[in-house]
Amino acid sequence: MSGGIRRWLPVVAVLSAGGAAAAVTALLLGEVMVGVRFAPALGVAVLTAGAAGVAAAVVVVRRRTERLRAQVLEAARKEAKEEHRRFLRRLDHELKNPLTAIRLGVANLRAADLDEAARGTAARVDDQVLRMVRITRDLRKLAAIEDQPMERLPVPLAGLLEAAGEAAGELPDGDDRKITVTVPDVPWPLSQPPGDADLLELALHNLVANAVKYSGPGCSVALRAFEESAHVVVEVADTGQGIPADELPYVWDELVRGSEVRDIPGSGVGLALVQAVVARHGGECEIRSRPGAGTVVRMRLPLA
Amino acid sequence: MSSATDGEHRPHVLLADDDEAITAQLAPLLERSGFTVEVVHDGGAALRGAMAVPGPDLVVLDVQMPVLDGREVLRRVRRSGSWLPVILLTQVGESAERAMALEEGADDYLNKPFDPYELTARLRAVLRRSGRGQPPLSASRTLRAGELRVDRTARRAWLRDQELVLTPKAGALLDYLVTHPDELLSRERLLEVLWGWETASTTRAVDNRIAELRRVLGDDPASPRWIDTVTGQGYRFIAPVKAGA
User: Is the confidence at residue A12, as pLDDT, over 50?
Assistant: First the structure.
């Protein structure tokens, strides 16, 4: 059992670092204790059933504890996520009134009789306020995606991909990217996963906007979809600048901006929105990237 | 800066928001835009001001206020039988709150932090509608536009005797269109109606819902009876809308 206990320790450490409740940790340790107390019973089994029986019993205990560990981890993760969402909502709420007052104040300044330098300053302040407004708006959007009622109708993804490809060309700098859209219709047209077309369009748009934004003139942006074991897989790939490996695990978090792209405007909420949309559809997201070569983001949407 | 209305009359706006940082900036902005502004800082004062004789031409109500919140003020004003135009400043981007704002009889609403000139545009539009001496469409449960009948509370609609099958979002969009007829509604504004956010980039969602509405209404975009496309700007509900069954 000592080997078993050693394997538990990292789990406890992860939970504490994640800010999970102490009760969860206690529950976890409690289960280890239960395992140890069961050991003599297993010993009896050894004598009567022989070596093969021991192996089976140990496997059973291990499976049980592993299942419990997964449940406890999942509960802790959920709780931490909820707390995080509540914080974002409070933040959004507390920023609303000051931002409204600043917007009004700047509008009043810009209407006043100012000299040219002051007019320029007021205009730049206005730009920065709008930037903050966009960030709070995106955070609110994120909350709305997670809370609002969602449609569950067959989504014509092929059409959405075509539209997103077209929209990409109309984005700033979009006209000098090579944009391709590949959707199979042989031997049958792409299946339509149940979901909310508005939300999936939003997710696709965010991915395509990222692909265009973080690539240069002449780069390729590919939108593609295909079916794979009861899922529709949608990929948006680009031959852009890529994301450093050490930043890759954090790209789904809110307000995260890559260290190499701080000069490119963005709210840092785009990929978090994508993940929230896909999660509401019961799907998963995945990102692969090579610095200097490009990035591909994959959304897997269940068909039922 | 253009004035609020033609002629000498400056519309009287009652502005109710408990945050002085906002009223101190908003009042002069509205004054400059041609309105006469009276400021109050809680719901009780807002209700007294709204029911005063002679009363204001329009009320701008923040939702979150001490004493009475903005929605409660609105409810009491409407319960008294008053048609006084009301614009709500909403705090929460939730669809439930937006739908409720209109169902409880607000003439319009804006999410904070709003564009200051968007607010003055809404004030003028609401005053234009209310200037016709009829009860506001937003205070009516049932609306009619030619052969189209909309039960706003039940969120159902009929064309002649045929009930229309609408997705909830298309229903919400139709409700907003029929309560804001003859008004140029930008895609961004309609996106906000649908989802509570406005982003310039993904307004295709609006176009798709408009297409859905046109399909069920049998409306031809080339010669529309109900929904007109204003190229490059948005949409306009062109059929005259009347209150009542």
Answer: no
Taking an 8 Å cut-off on Cβ atoms, the answer to whether B95 and A107 are in contact is no
Contacts of A204 in chain B (CB under 8 A): none
* pLDDT above 60 (res A138): yes
**Do residues B166 and B214 share a domain?**
yes
| ipTM of the complex model | 0.81
Q: Among A148, A176, A211, which residue terminates a domain? A: A148
The last residue of a domain, from among B130, B152, B178: B130
Statement to judge: residues A177 and A284 lie in one domain: yes
**What are the pLDDT digits (tens) for A67-106?**
999 999 999 988 988 888 788 778 888 898 999 999 999 9
Residue ending a domain, among B102, B130, B158, is B130
Instruction: Write the DSSP string, chain A.
Output: -HHHHHHHHHHHHHHHHTT--HHHHHHHHHHHHHHHHTHHHHHHHHHHH-HHHHHHHHHHHHHHHHHHHHHHHHHHHHHHHHHHHHHHHHHHHHHHHHHHHHHHHHHHHHHS---HHHHHHHHHHHHHHHHHHHHHHHHHHHHHHHHS----EE--HHHHHHHHHHHHHHSTTGGGSEEEEE---SSSPPP--EE-HHHHHHHHHHHHHHHHHTS-TT-EEEEEEEEETTEEEEEEEE-S----GGGGGGTTSTT---TT-TTS---S-HHHHHHHHHHHTT-EEEEEEETTTEEEEEEEEE--
What's the pLDDT tens digit per position in A166-198? 888 888 888 899 999 999 999 999 999 999 988
Query: What pLDDT, on a 0 to 100 scale, did the predictor assign at position B1?
Result: 46
Q: Do A202 and B205 touch (CB under 8 A)?
A: yes
> Considering only residues 123 to 182 of chain B, which have any Cβ-Cβ distance to chain A shorter than 8 Å?
167-169
Domain range enclosing B208? 140-243
A175 and A249 in one domain? Answer: yes
Please name the member of A104, A149, A151 whose beta carbon is closest to the beta carbon of B25.
A104
In a domain, B52, yes or no: yes
Q: What is the CATH number of the domain that holds B121?
A: 3.40.50.2300
B113:A140 CB<8 A: no
User: Do B102 and B152 share a domain, yes or no?
Assistant: no
Are A54 and A5 in the same domain? yes
Interface list for B 54-93 with A (CB within 8 A): 91-93
